Amino acid sequence: MIIKQHERIHADEGNLCKKCITELEELYLYLDLSVEELDLLDMPRRSFTVHFPVKMDTGKTKMFVGHRVQYNDARGPAKGGIRFHPELTLDDVRDLAFLMSLKCAVVNIPFGGSKGGVAVNPKELSRNELEQVTRSYIRAIADHIGPHKDIPAPDVYTDEKIMAWILDEYERIKGEHIPAVVTGKPIELGGSKARGYSTSLGGIHILEEALNRSNMEKHDVNIAIQGFGNVGENASRILYEKGYKIIAVSDSKGGIMNMDGLTVPEVMKHKANTGSVIDFKGSKFITNEELLTSECDILIPSALSEQLNKDNARDVKAKIVLELANAPTTIEADSIFLDRNIMLIPDILANAGGVVVSYFEWIQNLSNDYWEEERILEKLKKTMASSFNDVYSLCNEEKCSMRRSAYQLAVKRILHAERLRGNL
Ligand code: GLU
After folding, report:
1. Could you tell me the pTM of the whole model?
2. Ligand 1 and 329: CB distance under 6 A
3. Segments making up each domain of the chain, as ranges
4. Active site residue 161
5. Which of 15, 60, 113, 318 could form a disulfide with 299 if both were Cys (CB 3.0 to 4.6 A apart)?
6. How many Cβ atoms from other residues are within 10 Å of residue 248's Cβ?
């Protein structure tokens, strides 16, 4: 292992997940990085774990655990979402914060990367308990966040209502209005137009750039989308509105398929009425696993991590995989896709539209100048297209996967900033 070969003094096993560290170690050899450069990238600058009490509706107090990791902030304030998930650990948060650092660097916005969250199942909380958990968590980390330090945003199981509580709690503590402390807020509280669907739309811009460079015709492709939360649902809706054929979608209860194409607005109504996409009229029930290996040309994982793995990667029929979720593909599946010539568009590029519009929201808050939706959409499209181009050109030059070229681009940009700061 590289760690041993080079006797890295403060290397601490388990700094990063296997996948991140493998990519980094390969880049280390490939780019001929120094041990100092590798050390600087493979551990977070700051990690916090907080325990806080919340008075539940029963009147009893319950302790919760939350985390926040500011992985790297050489290029600007740390930036990243807050997720509420029952199995969330500090390790998960650190890996996701690492990916956020790369994501912001790939799309070339002046932010570092962070992530945070609370180990909780929000579905088991009342609205009041959810608000108290959010406010208590923010009180616990308030000294470490701020518009020029670290800026939270929504992530898995958090939304604009939660961002509004974050804003309010932070402003109560500081005693002044500071809208730029959090992004993904409701528009009435300084949120940006288009932020709600920007992750999905940004991903679709990336997909269209990829299609333009392939021999696939827009109207001939079949698309399957795993996940029907904010990202999956908006991706299905926008693709449908653009005239694409969506043959399958799913949520945690299972999936639905219609090879003639699903009428997405009707599926959305069905989900709003019943709580799930399953049992939608005219569709066949499929499992999430069947969706991943269905007869589609484009597969869009938009749910949780590690969905595509060594057990199913060989059966994937898609020619393009667009990672709208964070880390949906394992390292084994990555290399199977590379061998099978499947174009995998990595999360740090594919789902960066969310943080790009968060950046626009932050600028609007700091300048107190609010933009029309058209301006935001135009800037988002431009940013996504040029980022795709940067990654794709490098991948053609170097004959490597798009994940490798995206990492390479990001790592070089972060190290350049570190060098300019005198840290290397
Ligand atoms: N949670 C989103 C992500 O993983 C958005 C982060 C942000 O807007 O800061 O990219």
Report:
1. 0.95
2. no
3. 44-179, 197-350
4. no
5. 318
6. 28
Does the beta carbon of 258 sit less than 6 angstroms from any atom of ligand 1?
Answer: no
CA of 78 to the centre of ligand 1 (A): 11
Contact 32, 114 (CB under 8 A): no
Q: How far apart are CA 364 and CA 105, in angstroms?
A: 21
Residue nearest to atom 9 of ligand 1 (CA): 80
User: Which pLDDT tens digit goes with each residue over 176-222?
Assistant: 999 999 999 999 999 999 999 999 999 999 999 999 999 898 889 99
Nearest 5°: the CA angle 149, 155, 159 is 100
Instruction: Write down the catalytic residue from 19, 103, 115, 185.
Output: 115
pLDDT score recorded for residue 14: 58
At residue 6, the pLDDT reads: 45
Domain 44-179 has CATH 3.40.50.10860: yes
287's tokens: 């499992």
Superfamily name and number for 197-350: NAD(P)-binding Rossmann-like Domain (3.40.50.720)
Q: Which of 314, 306, 226, 308 is nearest to 17 (CA)?
A: 306
